[in-house]
Design brief:
416 residues; 4 strands; mainly alpha; 4% strand
């Protein structure tokens, strides 16, 4: 077996061991703290609610364990098991031009992968989410969403795939730079188009109708010097009982979106504080910073792929016999997570830093106490565990643990 194949297997095994070790830690930590509500939450969350969150977390871990095993098995089948090479052979037999063989290979791989992922998605949605009272998606809506996603893949993704493969064939040794420019343009386009063209295909959005709440939030926006294309309520309750709020778009297409489930659970001052937190992300320029990070990582990744495309061991070491643009791109996307697992806690730490900054901004421009109350209600309504394992959380959670976040906010309030 080639040296690169051995390295790939070692890192894949290490990643599997790491993930299952983290799950073991998380399950044990949550179970040990299941019998008592943490002191900071004892007056606001009942023991029954705390235990529901623990049981929900453990149920999701069961899905995660199976998902990790299935993903690793499929990765091995596609690569060293010869699955990708066999699929490529079918497209080679068509005798189509290389570009269209590559397009067919990528689209068929995506379709097969989606079908193979379907059982776990069904288990999560109609099993775990339904068991704990969160799922509101019907079978018809689930299928409709899948068809919409397929339609978007063909309408938006297919032209992108064709253009990228064409550049990889025709743009010379620096094709990766041109692909990077195309990719970043695509990301900017999607960010602009998502609020007005894509999101309405899946959900209904209507302007915030509560006059008192809208006036209160508009006053906050004016104080913070923020303008948007409006505040909208999304019918998130059609699919889930989970609540959330977010900004989307950029330029004149910026929108503030509240899930209807969020608005039914929070008081006006708590909604204002949650919005102030989101404004904190805007004021600290977190979205542009993350886009810049994405741009740099994408550029480095594509430059690396540009070099790997010239190395035969990259292809043979991963179980394929041809050295084509489509195969190189697929292999890179399949195996890069195996080689970059160490970046996960780094990106999580960066995200948490942003969350602390946004909380500080909310406490300074709204009410820290209202934000704490709103967060506690959201933890309760979403059955988020109050006692995650610190190490698991460092790898898998983009937000600080509940106790850490509330303690940080409380310290800010005391100082002021």
């Amino acid at each position: 077996m080639a040296g690169f194949s051995i390295l790939f297997l070692i890192l894949l095994g290490f990643g599997l061991f790491l993930e299952y070790w983290l799950i073991w830690r998380q399950a044990g930590y949550v179970t040990r703290h299941r019998k008592q509500v943490p002191g900071a939450f004892a007056q606001k969350i009942s023991l029954a609610e705390h235990q529901k969150a623990a049981d929900y977390t453990l149920a999701k871990l069961s899905v995660q364990k199976v998902g990790i095993a299935v993903s690793a098995a499929l990765l091995l089948i596609w690569t060293l098991g010869g699955g990708l090479d066999a699929l490529d052979g079918l497209w080679l037999a068509t005798q189509w031009p290389l570009l269209w063989q590559g397009v067919g290979l990528i689209l068929s791989l995506l379709l097969i992968s989606a079908l193979l992922d379907l059982p776990i998605s069904l288990w999560s949605t109609f099993g775990v989410e339904a068991k704990f009272g969160f799922n509101r998606t019907t079978g018809k809506r689930f299928i409709t969403d899948l068809l919409l996603q397929l339609g978007l893949l063909l309408l938006i993704g297919l032209p992108l795939v064709i253009l990228v493969l064409w550049l990889m064939e025709k743009a010379g040794s620096y094709w990766w730079l041109w692909v990077w420019l195309v990719w970043m343009s695509f990301i900017l386009f999607i960010s602009w188009a998502y609020p007005v063209l894509i999101a309405p295909l899946f959900n209904k959005f209507k302007p915030l109708e509560d006059d008192n709440l809208r006036n209160r939030l508009e006053a906050l926006l004016e104080r913070c010097g923020f303008s948007s294309d409006g505040m909208f309520v999304m019918d998130g309750s059609r699919r889930s009982a989970h609540g959330n709020a977010y900004f989307t778009g950029f330029g004149r297409n910026k929108r503030i979106v509240f899930f209807d489930t969020l608005l039914t659970g929070l008081a006006a001052e708590e909604v204002e504080a949650v919005l102030a937190h989101e404004l904190g992300h805007f004021k600290h320029k977190h979205v542009p910073k993350m886009m810049l990070t994405t741009a740099l990582l994408s550029l480095l990744g594509l430059a690396l792929l540009g070099w790997l495309m010239t190395q035969s061991w990259f292809f043979t070491g991963l179980g394929v016999s041809r050295q084509t643009p489509a195969l190189g791109l697929i292999l890179f996307l399949l195996v890069i997570p195996v080689f970059t697992v160490f970046l996960t806690p780094v990106m999580s730490a960066l995200s948490r830093r942003h969350e602390f900054q946004a909380d500080e901004y909310a406490a300074a421009n709204s009410s820290g106490d209202a934000l704490i109350n709103g967060l506690v209600k959201m933890y309760k309504d979403n059955a988020s565990t109050l006692t995650p394992d610190p190490v698991y959380s460092a790898f898998h959670h983009s937000h600080p643990p509940a106790s850490v976040r509330i303690a940080h906010l409380s310290s800010i309030i005391v100082k002021t």
